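Changelog note: in this version the structure field was regenerated for every chain. One regenerated record is shown below for reference.
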Amino acid sequence: MVRRIDNVGKTVWTFIEGDTHVTSGQTSYSVGFGIAQSGDRLYVGTGVWQKQSNLMKPAVIALDVATGSQVWKKVFDTQPGHGGVRGVIVDGARIICTGYVNNADPGFLFIADAATPAVWELDTSGNLVMEKLLNIDSLGQGAKIRKDLTSGYVMTSSAWDAIEGQELNVVALVKLSSSLDVEWSKKFGMAGGHSQVFDMLV
């Protein structure tokens, strides 16, 4: 669900997306993760249930800011399993997204531990320009992505790593080129407890 609220708390419009499960009485899952605005468009990063496959697939939905009506929807269904678009930004004519694919479980997950992290580029008409799957040890997803001030993008998420013999949540930071290839990745954490990331500023 996406809801626009005015400055006095009044609902302007509400947009709801998501299909039912093919089997009556079974639960389907659709989740909104992130949102970005460019001009008169909102771009919503989601995981949207697909009735024909009974899978939650990563998707981006473009909405009209004024009315909340859907302009287009792009579902990324080239990879197996469940997935979601957790972070989305607009960089000129490029819509850059990060999230995950190939997960065993649908719905909202704090961290999609066993998934495969992914990044995508769309144009502003909803056409897929590129999809890249990332191979970074113990990182199952991308959560937030930002434009780097020099070139390319920076993606972050909570991940896992061994610190002084303990398997702990750590903060993963991934530098991507303009073509969404990995230039470097680093993990940060402290012994004695978990470290998690919820946002970042570049």
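Spot check on this record: DSSP finds no helices and 14 strands in the chain. The radius of gyration is 17 Å.
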